[in-house]
Amino acid sequence: MYFFGIGIHVFIAVFFAIHVIRSGQNMYWLAILFMFPLLGSLVYGIAIYLPSTRIQHGAKKVMSAAGKILDPNRELREAHAAFDYTPTAQNQMRLAAALLAADQAEDAAKNYETCLQGPFASDPAIRLGAARANFACQRYEACISHLRILKESAPNNAPEVVSVLMAKALAGAGHTDEARTEFEFALQKFGNFDTRAEYAIWAISRGDKETALKLKTDLDQTISRWNRHNRELNATMLARLTRAFP
C-alpha cells in the first residue's frame, strides 16, 4: 500500500510535468515536482493547473457576460476611441463589428463597405460582416450579393452561417422558391440546431405547417436533452421559437 501511494504521487507529478512542458511554464516547476512529488503536485495543481482549465474559462465567460450587462457599450466606446486615435483598417473592422453588435447596423454597414475598398477587400470575415449588416438594414439584395461572392471566393468560411443567412436574405427579397431551396440545402448539408430553427421559423411564417411542425418536433427532442447551460446559450433562439410556435 505504501509503494502504491508513492506510485500515485509520482504519476501525478509526471502528469503535471508534461503540463509544464506543453504549456510553457517555468522549468523550475520540474525540479519542484520531482524533488517533492506530493507537495509539489499539490502546489502546482492549485497555482497553475486548475486556473488554466475550464473552470477559469467558465469564470471568464461569466465575467465577460457580467461586464456586457453592466457596461454594454464598453466595446463600442473603446472601438470608437481606437479608430479615432489610429484610423487603421484593423481598427475600422473592430469598429464595424462593435457597431453591428450594438444594433447600429446602418453605421456598421458603412464601415464594412469602406473596409472592403481597402487592402482587406478579400477578407471573408469582413465580407460576412457586410452581409450581416446589410441584412439587418433590410437591404437584402446587397446581402445576397456579398454572400454570393463569399460562396465563390471562400466556400469553406462558415458555410453553414453563409447558407442560412442566404436563405433568410432570399426570403426577405421575396425569392421564396430560392429561399426554400437554400434552406433545404442547409438542412441536408449541415442540419445543426440553428439551421433547423431558422427553417422552422421561416416555414411557419409562410404557412407551411407540415414542414414547420416536423422541424419543431426534431427541435423539441434536441432541446429536451439540453442542460441549463445549453438553454442559456441558446436563449435568444429559444425565445424566437416560442414566439413563432406559441
Characterise this structure:
The protein is an all-alpha fold and 246 residues long. The chain has two domains: 2-52; 75-244, Serine Threonine Protein Phosphatase 5, Tetratricopeptide repeat (Alpha Horseshoe). The chain has helices spanning 2-22, 28-35, 37-49, 54-70, 74-85, 89-101, 105-115, 124-136, 140-153, 159-172, 176-189, 193-205, 209-224, 228-233, 235-244. Helix 1 (2-22) packs parallel to helix 3 (37-49), helix 12 packs antiparallel against helix 13 (209-224) and helix 12 (193-205) packs parallel to helix 15 (235-244). The chain is extended and about 70 Å long. The model is unreliable at 1-5 and 54-60 (pLDDT under 50). This is Tetratricopeptide repeat protein. It comes from Undibacterium jejuense. Keywords: Membrane, Transmembrane, Transmembrane helix.
Offer a few descriptive terms:
single chain, 246 residues, mainly alpha, Serine Threonine Protein Phosphatase 5, Tetratricopeptide repeat, 2 domains, 15 helices, 79% helix, extended, disordered N terminus
Q: What order do the helices and strands come in, and which of them pair?
A:
Blueprint: H1 2-22, H2 28-35, H3 37-49, H4 54-70, H5 74-85, H6 89-101, H7 105-115, H8 124-136, H9 140-153, H10 159-172, H11 176-189, H12 193-205, H13 209-224, H14 228-233, H15 235-244
Helix pairs in contact: 1-2, 1-3, 2-3, 5-6, 6-7, 6-8, 7-8, 8-9, 9-10, 10-11, 10-12, 11-12, 12-13, 12-15
